[in-house]
Specification:
This protein has a single domain, classed as Electron Transport, Fmn-binding Protein, Chain A (Pnp Oxidase, Chain A). Helix content is 21%, strand content 22%. Strands 2-1-5 form a three-stranded antiparallel sheet. The radius of gyration is 16 Å and the shape is globular. The mean pLDDT is 93. Bound molecules: flavin mononucleotide. Flavin mononucleotide (FMN) binds next to strand 2, helix 2 and helix 3.
Length: 126
């Protein structure tokens, strides 16, 4: 028989969850990165993601401004860095430098790639 639970107790069943890193480009040319757990693939071709991003996040402001971002899947050793970039706001600090995450240029957007993120086999080219 189904158990009754409060909505907040039921939501806890979702965790632990996979987290992605979302990078963006700042107006001064620097980069920002945040952790996003509420993320889902919505389409493979064309590549589409659903990202639930708080409207107080700097990332939200930068995506609205630049219309660009990168979604990176952190590798299993990046836990500390994920927590670092997920607990600070990029308005006030350089989270790339502070976290020690290495970035590299992307081919098609100004937002950078996370250098040691998981590289997917058979990535769509769009
Ligand atoms: C594991 C983890 C998952 C998170 N998931 C989300 C999320 O799905 N959506 C969101 O808006 N914030 C999420 N956060 C919080 C943001 O990463 C955090 O507010 C961050 O400071 C925003 O950075 P920004 O202001 O530089 O964009 C998460 C944090 C952690 C540590």
């Amino acid at each position: 028989m189904q158990k009754r639970a409060t909505i907040s107790k039921a939501f806890k069943r979702k965790y632990p969850e996979q987290v992605v890193l979302v990078t963006t480009r700042k107006p001064d040319g620097g980069a920002n990165v945040m952790a996003v757990g509420w993320a889902a693939i919505a389409s493979s071709v064309p590549s589409m993601f659903v990202l639930a991003i708080d409207d107080g996040a700097y990332t939200y402001e930068l995506i609205k401004k630049t219309k660009e971002f990168v979604v990176a899947f952190p590798n299993e050793k990046m836990g500390k860095e994920v927590v670092y970039v997920g607990t600070r706001h990029g308005h006030t600090c350089d989270k790339i430098a502070g976290s020690g995450l290495a970035i590299q240029p992307a081919d098609k957007v100004k937002a950078p790639l996370i250098a040691n993120a998981v590289r997917l086999q058979g990535q769509p080219s769009n």
